[in-house]
Design goal:
2 domains, 17 helices, globular, alpha/beta, single chain, Rossmann fold, binds 5-amino-5-deoxy-1-O-phosphono-D-mannitol, 27 strands, eight-stranded antiparallel beta sheet, Glutamine Phosphoribosylpyrophosphate, subunit 1, domain 1
Length: about 600
């Protein structure tokens, strides 16, 4: 979603601002802007609708030497994507970039008749409010920001610069992330640490309710109540290679192909094949606490929700002593759900910033329930607010469609389930087969990707003409099918939906005709024959089917079969998901759409 960058230092601010905004492009946006201020207080504000390339065109004749400035990519919430609605917003002598939503902006706007509003945004109201306290420099900028923020209801990450103090930025956060990069004679600001990679390895992550005055050689952090904060400088672990395409045409393909390594990172130091056990330190639960767990709530959105669904099928297989409830964060946050004693909540999020998931985390914590994060982004808000957690360690995921995070989220949650089962004394003979398969998965994923890539590319050419798709599966293949359908829908704009095979006759079978193609997951196992019968039902109605299976004898006359040769049984659906990821990718390439930044979507959904 929206992205913020800021710079104060000895170099030209414009360079970092534009390159930083490009790093944040993956988050999704529809307009962009920067302002820089010269040492003698002259501001240059440039904004453009559309891509950063449009902004660069406008900036090309305006190369400035200014040493301070802020920039923004906007993902429209209040008001259409347009130059006037783009940030930074000006009020008097100040310029503000804002992520988040000011919920009481209408009331606040009524108190600001002196400001000539140019945009439809809540963010300009915030700028005008700050200016009303600043009074053209009568008060310190930071004091004006604090006064204004005390009146605001909603969420914000902001960076403010003034023509009257071109040696500082004021930044603050509540609900929208802000990171301050500590450099040599320069300080950088961003809403996402990836913008800082290559500039500095040292960063301060602001907490909610904190405000900072940022200068090239110093950072002062305090709370909105003026209590000084001794901010911790943390290391940014991401390296440049992790946020570059590395020879691939798209981040999505790179991230699909990275899965052997990314999953190996998730497993590193956590699996003992010899003993047939797993060990997770992060959740921070003692053996006694693990033994007391009776119920898990798994909370997530989109792919993270699907990962939770799939993991729940496995966790239930380990022991009947745990029930698992998987919930969509945007729904759960408003439910009056009863949480039984002995519950632990798993909060699943790649970005660690998803607004609905974060809101659930806070609600659940209020009820005294122990929370465990399954998060990728290190230092993200969810990672910082959970009681304990397991990072999936898949490095940044840049493409909006989540792929490598899904695989690792599933396995991280399964490992958490195994950890509980071990503590509860479930026999090693029951758990060992899962542990052994998990340990071998990274290699198997690499093998399957190599084996199927070429075929799936060809198959995609055949199905790229369809506007509708049905994904089908039973048992663990059902949540996997849900994830497959989401992948196709979000990047290729095909109307793809998943159904449990057993639900076919209860409605979806009526859809089968020449406008649809079907993707069916048919894994080996106790329910294989039932899935085969369902495939026959679709075939009998003229379905255009792609079957993904690990059963070499599968011989029904469907249009396409992708056979996966593997010794993996329990986690075969995760291998089938690789085929669906590639299918979504190649169909989208065939259609010529923007693979990494699908329309209307953002990587990190920081608003409700
Ligand atoms: O960062 P999160 O894992 O919390 O994000 C959750 C969803 O927004 C995300 O998985 C989304 O559904 C993806 N676009 C799916 O590919």
């Amino acid at each position: 979603m929206c992205g913020i960058v800021g710079y104060v230092g000895e170099k030209k601010a414009q360079g970092f601002l534009v390159s930083g905004l490009k790093r944040l492009e993956y988050r999704g946006y529809d307009s962009a802007g920067v302002v820089t201020v010269s040492d003698d207080g002259e501001a240059t504000l440039v904004r453009a609708k559309g891509k950063i390339a449009e902004l660069e065109k406008k900036l090309s004749g305006l190369k400035r030497d200014d040493h301070v400035g802020v920039g923004h990519t906007r993902w429209a919430t209040h008001g259409e994507p347009s130059e006037l609605n783009a940030h930074p917003h000006r009020a008097g002598k100040i310029y503000v970039v804002h992520n988040g939503i000011i919920e009481n902006y209408k009331e606040l706007k009524d108190t600001l008749p002196q400001h000539d509003f140019k945009s439809e945004t809540d963010s300009e109201v915030l700028a005008a409010l700050i200016d009303s306290f600043y009074q053209d420099g009568k008060y310190e900028l930071v004091d004006a920001v604090v006064q204004a923020l005390k009146l605001v209801k909603g969420t914000y990450g902001i960076a403010v610069v003034s023509e009257l103090s071109p040696d500082e930025l004021v930044v603050a956060r509540s609900g929208s992330p802000l990171v301050i990069g500590v450099g040599n004679n320069e300080t950088l600001v961003a809403s996402d640490a990836s913008a800082l990679v290559g500039h500095t390895k040292r960063a301060i992550y602001l907490n909610d309710g904190e405000v900072a005055v940022v200068r090239k050689d110093g950072i002062e952090v305090k709370t909105l109540n003026a209590e000084p904060v001794s901010a911790k400088v943390e290391e940014i672990e991401t390296n440049l290679a992790a946020i570059q395409k590395g020879g691939y045409e798209h981040f999505l393909l790179k991230e699909i192909m990275e899965q052997p390594n990314s999953l190996a990172e998730t497993l590193r130091g956590r699996v003992n094949v010899k003993e047939g056990t797993v060990h997770l330190g992060g959740p921070g639960l003692s053996e006694a606490e693990l033994r007391k767990i009776r119920h898990l709530i798994i909370v997530g959105c989109g792919t993270a929700y699907h990962a939770g669904m799939l993991a729940s099928y496995y966790i239930e297989q380990f022991t009947s002593e745990i029930t698992v409830e998987v919930v969509i964060a945007s729904e759960y946050r408003y439910r009056q759900a009863y949480i039984p004693d002995g519950t632990v909540a798993l909060i699943v999020s790649q970005s660690g910033e998803t607004a609905d998931t974060l809101a659930c985390l806070r609600e659940i914590k209020k009820q005294g329930v122990r929370t465990v994060g399954i998060v990728n982004a290190i230092g993200s808000t969810i990672a910082r607010e959970v009681d304990g957690g397991t990072y999936v360690h898949v490095e940044p995921e840049i493409s909006v469609a989540s792929t490598k995070a899904f695989t690792s989220q599933v396995i991280a949650m399964v490992m958490f389930g195994l950890t509980i089962a071990q503590a509860k004394g479930v026999r090693n003979t029951v758990l060992r087969p899962y542990v052994e398969e998990i340990a071998g998965l990274p290699e198997e994923i690499g093998r399957v990707l190599d084996a199927v890539n070429g075929d799936v590319k060809e198959i995609a050419k055949r199905y790229a003409k369809y506007e509708h798709a049905i994904y089908l599966g039973r048992d663990t293949a059902y949540p996997t099918a849900m994830e497959g359908a989401l992948k196709l829908k979000e990047i290729s704009y095909v109307d793809a939906n998943a159904y449990a095979f057993g639900e076919l006759k209860h409605g979806p079978l009526a859809l089968v005709d020449d406008r649809f193609f079907e993707v069916a997951l048919v894994p080996e196992g106790a329910l294989y024959e039932k899935s085969v019968s369902n495939v026959q039902e679709v075939l009998a109605r003229g379905g255009h089917m792609v079957v993904i299976t690990n059963v070499s004898e599968f011989d029904l006359p469907v249009e396409c079969v992708v056979k996966i040769t593997t010794s993996v049984r329990l986690f075969a659906p995760l291998l089938m998901n690789l085929v669906m990821q590639l299918l979504a990718y190649y169909v989208t390439v065939e259609k010529g759409y923007n693979v990494d930044q699908p329309r209307n979507l953002a990587k990190s959904v920081t608003v409700e």
